[in-house]
Amino acid sequence: MSERIGIAIAGLNGAVASTVVAGVELIRRGLAEPVGLLTEDPAVRKLASLASLDDFVFAGWDPRLETELQAATRNDVVGTVQLKPVAPALRKLRAWPARWSAAAVRRDIAAFQCKHRLARVIVIALTPTEPVGRPGPSAIYARGAIEAGCPFINFTPNVADELPALRALAGKRGVPLAGKDGKTGQTMMKSVLAPAFRSRGLRVEGWFSTNLLGNEDGRTLNDPAAHRAKEKCKSDLLDQMLGYPVKPHTVQINYYPPRGDNKEAWDNIDLVGFLGKRMALKINFLCRDSILAAPLVIDLVRWMDLAARRGARGPQEWLGFYFKAPYSTGKQPVENGLMEQYRALLEHVRRFVR
Question: Which of 269, 287, 305 is the last residue of a domain?
Answer without folding.
Answer: 287
